[in-house]
Every structure is written in structure tokens, then in C-alpha cells.
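Lecture 7 notes. Example A: sequence first, then its C-alpha cells.
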Amino acid sequence: MIILAIETSCDETSAAVLKDGREVLSNVISSQIEFHKKYGGIVPELASRKHIEVINPIIQEALDKANVKFKDLGAVAVTHGPGLVGSLLVGICAAKAISYSLNIPLVGVNHLEAHIYANYLDQNPKLPFICLLVSGGHTMLVMVKDHGKYKVLGRTRDDAAGEAFDKVARFLKLGYPGGPIIDKLAKEGNPNAIKFTRPMIEDGYDFSFSGIKTAVVNYYGKLSVVGSKLLVDIAASFQQTVVEVLTTKTIRAAKDNKCETIALAGGVSANSGLRKALMEKGQEQGLVVHIPPLNLCTDNAAMVGCLAHYLLKQGKVSDLKLPAVASLRL
């Protein structure tokens, strides 16, 4: 089975070709980061227009790199939520056109679920497992009971972790996107220089990152002089605080639910501090830890195609009325 997958939920236009769900023949990603950087964040209307400009060339490039023709496709998969409605619609319309013209199955995919399945592209997590799904728009702990069967154990009550990174970076005038910038600065700073409170670290599985963001703002506002050394210490201490909360709750969830395996997913899974801490602390507790390679952490179509493979095996396909659902839940 050859699957063409399309991902346009936010500001990356991506198309991938997969064989039997896990062999990635191509995975092409066109990012809009440089375009949105001058605005300090993603402008939804402009993002959808950029998707329109590049969607067809990206699909063709994915097919060419995989040495596959349209006639070779057995199905087409596409993200239909959650995400920016305008962006989602571009990918959905392209997928519907391909499905209709070739008379092949259309598979609508949940973006959050697809991030979890990035772990299946080069690994094979043992079910059940606990997945920390952390991105700019979502932060949640999910128990993956089986393929397609999930239990959300906890989620953020306010800002997602990635959102907090971006907001802190914006306040400190570090640039956009904030996550990679803070991660880079944190490597040069002392993570124990400033003792920020670990929000809700002992309270259940839910998260809250609005308070730590405010704490950074208040600390910075009281300073009379801010040198480069102090700035990297703020970045390192902030990142350490967020990472400690995320890893502590993930490991606790695994222990409480008697899961031997934990996995990381979502855009923030590219954060070097989080990757290192989860791997080290998880292994210290005797857990098997799965972390996707960096090229599969951010939004990409390969993870969409992988999930679609498992959905097809369960007979789950969509019709041409497939909608774009901005707030689609896991």
C-alpha cells in the first residue's frame, strides 16, 4: 500500500509518500517561519495563502522523490484538525481532489494523534504507553491503550508549554520562534541560577504554564541592568522549570498506570533539554523511552501517513464531506 499524506494544519506545508505505513519514501516540508518572523508569530490568513502557493509543487516533489506516480497511490491521507481553519482547508481540498480523481480512499487524520504516531516511524512502542504530547498549542499526557484507543490523563489549564516559550521569548525580545532560541541560550546558562516555582508539579496530571511565564516577566521587570550572562541564566532557569514539570508528571503517570514505556511527541519534543531529561530520568526509573528523531518532531506529513496506515487497517476512511475542524480533540 502506497499512501500520499498531506499536512497543512499550521505554517508548514508538507507532503510525504509512505509504503506500508512505516517506510518513508519521501517527506517534503516547506516552512513559513522566515515569512512570519517579522510579525512575531503566525498570521492565519497569510499562512493559508502561502499553503495555496506551494501545495501542488510540494505534492509533486514528494511523488518525484519517492519515484511514485499518482496511479501508484492506494490512498491519500490529510490532517483535518485541529489547526488553523484556512490552512487545514488547503490540504483537505487537495486531498479530496486526489481521492475523487483517482477513486482511492480518503483518510482524515487528527493532527494530535499523528504526532503520537511519529514514534512508530523508526521505533515500535510497546502498548500500552504514556505519551507526553507537547507543542505550541497543546500540552497533554495521553495513555495510549491500543491503536486508536486513548485516555487523556491531563492537559494544560492555560498556556501550552510551547506557547509559554514563545511568549517569554517575545517579552525578552529574543525573536521568533521562541522555543529554539531559548533552547540555544539555555545551553550557555546556569539552569539553577534562578529558582522559579514549579507550577502544579505535585498536583495530578494537569499542567499550568501561565504562572511561570508571569514569574519570568516579573523577575525581568525588577532588574535594573540585564547583561547577556543574566539573559542566558533566565533562559536556562525558565527552560529547566518547564522541563522538570513535564518530565516529573510523565514519569509519575507511567508509574501510576503501570506502563513500562513512555514516549515524547509534538513540536516541543525537539527541545534538547526536554529530550535529555526525559531520556535520563525515564531510564533511571527503569522505563523504556521513545523519542522521535528531530525531523519528525515538528509538523510533517510522514506522521500523518503512518497514522493513516493504521486507520485503514481498521477500515476507517472518510468521505468527500470531510470537514476542517479547528478544535478537533483527541
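Example B, a different protein, same format:
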Amino acid sequence: MTPQLASRHSIDATLELSDTAERTWDVVVVGAGPAGALAARQAARLGAAVLLIDKAFFPRWKVCGCCLNAAALSVLEFVGLEELPARAGAKPLERIRLAAGKRAAVCRLPGGVSLSREAFDTALVEAALSAGAHFLPHTEATLRSVDAATFRTLDLRREHQTIAVRSRVVLAADGLSGRLASNEPDLQTSVSRTSRLGAGAVLEDDSGYFGDGVIYMASGRGGYVGLVRLEDGRLDVAAALDREAVRRSGGPGRLAASVLSQAGFPVPAGIEEAAWRGTPPLTRRPARLYSERLMVLGDAAGYVEPFTGEGMAWALAGAASIAPLAVSGAETWSPEVGLAWEQLHHCMIVRRQFACRWVSRLLRRPTLCAAAVTALRAAPQLASPLIHAINRPFAALSRVTPIHQGVKS
């Protein structure tokens, strides 16, 4: 455990594993990242009996997601958690510095913050517990086949103990590498053949070049690399890299250093030797988002390469909108509940992913990207429509009752 993680208090289980089998839960959420933790919090505030599960201990570090853009913050405001980032020490973001082919341009990027996933995810889990949800960290969950009309059964394994629990609705928020829904016939995931891998590391960089309040984005042959200063002074590095280029270069650290050098950014000391972590291929889509008493959200519900924190906004918006449907489904399940979630997800999130698909295609073409940077250097306002598109609030949230008001706290 790094010194930064050791300095943060851990979140203990709120009940023993054996106690989870003594009741039928309204909602079990598997995965305590932003999507899972916020969905658990919102469902608990509607009065549901909620169990939140994650395979890791908390706090824990994640590869990416350290930027919350204005759209993500608008979701937190919608659910009554607008003060959470500031309480966790988030740093305001003001600009983005794009570089390709030794050229660089600076554009305004108002309304966002940087915040480590250790701090943000821990704060969201604590918010879920404050709302009445129960939490089991360091617990593996496996979903059984449908064996009853009124609930789904999961096998929970913690240390050397395994126990079966029942839930009226299960939410799979277990991320890109999640396997909870992998055996559901209708929920098989297709991965784009051109999908890049995600990779990330955190550096103790004190070079002075990468300052506060700026997202640094470098594009080059083999992928693109983003850097941002965190609330505790560390430098978070997140990249989307071509699989074959990672293999040829000898690892993500070496490829990231090459991309930064191609773009004209200084290469932070220790980047090649850092403890890099990777993700499965980023761009993916499940065939459906629901099965019998099961709904999928967050990264597990489909993902494209993000740009400046869009993935976090998608996760939070999905969590805020799925909770009322999950509670409704726990009361009376029907396929219409799952279909309503699928339609809302498409309207709220899939349509917004178009902008990131366009940007990711641009970033795959270094020469074209360098030309775009040159144009932005001369006229930074050209980026305004894209920045507006990724920062705008989620209009479809207007269909969701803002359940932070007048309900269980």
C-alpha cells in the first residue's frame, strides 16, 4: 500500500458475510466504483435494503477517472452531493493543453476538477453507507442462473467462506473486466477490433512543468497520454494505447514516454519504471443491458475511449437514473423495467458518446491531430463546441425524480 493510501482510513464491512444470508435484499450492487456506489446510495435513500459489494479493499487506486468534468459535477449536484468533491480536496481544472507533433495549443476547459479515485470512490462509498446501504469489501460475487421467480441468487466469497444471498434486483457495476453477467445469454459483450487498452500510473513528479488546474494531453504513434495533478500533489498518468504498440515498445511505460516525447512534452522521471496498471480493451458494447432481475450499468454497460473525464460523467448519470428503476423492479419485476433502463441509457449516455468516438478517431491519426492542434493554437475557440458538448448537463435526468429531497437520509 502506498503512503497516500495508508494515510486514508479504510472502510470496514458493515456486517458479517454470514449475516447477508439472513434476509432477501431489495438491491445488491456488485462493484463499488462511482456507478455502483452512487446507485447504492440512491436506492438506499428510496428506502430499499441495499447491499454493496466490491472485490477490493477501500481505499484503492484505479487506472483512470481522476477528472470530473462539469457534466459529472452536475450529476452530483442533482443528487445532493455537490459539496463532496471539495470536501475530498478536489482541485479546480481551468484549461487543457493539447500536444501533437511538437505542437501545442491551450484551450479553456471550465467547470471541472481533478480528484484521485482513492478519495472520490471512498467518499461515494461513505455516502452510500450514510444513506443506509451495507457494504462488503474484499468479496467476490458470482451470479447463479435464474432459479426463482421473485429473486436472484449470488454466491459471495470472502476469504475462505462462501455463502448464498438473495436479491430482488441485482445491479452489475463491476467495470470493464467484470464477469458477473458473463454467463447471461443475452448480455454477451462485443469488443471493437480496434479498441485500445487503458493504462495508468501515479508519479511523485516534482519537475515543475505539469502544474495544477491543467489537463495535459499528448497524441502520438501508438496512442495518447493524459496527465493531471491530483489533490495531494501526485501526477496521475492515464493512457489509451494500441495493443501491438505496447508489445513492440516493451510495456506501457515505455510507450507512454515515447508518446510524450513525440508530442513535445517533457518525460516525467520514473514513468517507464512506474507500477503501471492496465485495463481490458476500452471500446465495447453488451448486446443488452438487462436480464431477469439483473441490470448492467457503468463501464460494464458499454464504453468508448474517453477524453477529459467523460467516462466518470457517464457512470454517475447512469447511477442516478437507474436507482428508481431498480427499486421499482424490486417491488414488481417485469421486462419493461429493464427495457426502460436500456432506453434511458441510450438516450442519456450512448448518444453523448458520439463526441468521444469522433475525438478518438482523430487521436489515432498523428498527422491530422497535429494539424488540428495547429488550428487550435491559432483559434482556441474552435474547440468550444466540443467542450460544450462534453460539459453540458444530462437533459434526460429531468425524467428522474431528484431523490435527495424529502426521502430517507
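Note on Example B: The CA atoms of residues 29 and 171 lie 5 Å apart. Residues 402-409 have pLDDT under 50 and may be disordered.
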